[in-house]
Amino acid sequence: MVSSLHRQQSLSFINNNRAAVVAGPVVQHQIRTFLAPSRTLFAANTADVDKGVQNITDLFMVARDELEYAEEARGSVYYNDDKETARQAVQETLDAYNVLLTDLDDAQKLDVQRKIGLKIMELKSQLDALNAEELE
Fold first, then answer.
1. pLDDT for residue 136
2. What was the pLDDT predicted at 132?
3. Using the 8-state DSSP alphabet, how is residue 104 labeled?
4. From CA 76, how far away is CA 73, in angstroms rounded?
5. What domains sit in the chain, N to C, each tagged with a CATH number?
6. For 66, left (φ over 0), alpha (ψ -120 to 50), or beta?
7. Which contacts qualify for 116-123: CB closer than 8 Å, 24 or more apart?
8. Would the pTM count as exceeding 0.85?
9. Which positions of the chain have pLDDT values less than 50?
10. What's residue 101's pLDDT?
């Protein structure tokens, strides 16, 4: 059993880099420090948030195009592949959006949701409509 003093000496936390360095063999692990499940201790700078929003906007445009291609391919031999490509593009966009939100404080989350939240909901509903039409 490792004593708490030994554990305390073995781990040193560097808050500004959010990294834990383990003594002994050189091993470094990135950790995330949370105040609560929905709030992080840090706020991303505006430039990083803007880059994230731009990346998601670019992914949104690709996903929307893929949804249109799938819709145009309905009834053709290409439909299933185009629909799967569209589904993957939408999922990639949703994943990027969710990752961005997890790295922001509450005020930044609201700002991002105001900027691109409707686009995200639009993608979800377009994919749902594509799937629903297939069931009819």
1. 59
2. 86
3. S
4. 5
5. 4-31 (no CATH), 39-135 (1.20.58)
6. alpha
7. 116/53, 116/56, 116/57, 116/60, 119/56, 119/57, 119/60, 120/56, 120/60, 120/93, 120/94, 122/64, 123/60, 123/63, 123/64, 123/67, 123/90, 123/93, 123/94
8. no
9. 1-42
10. 94
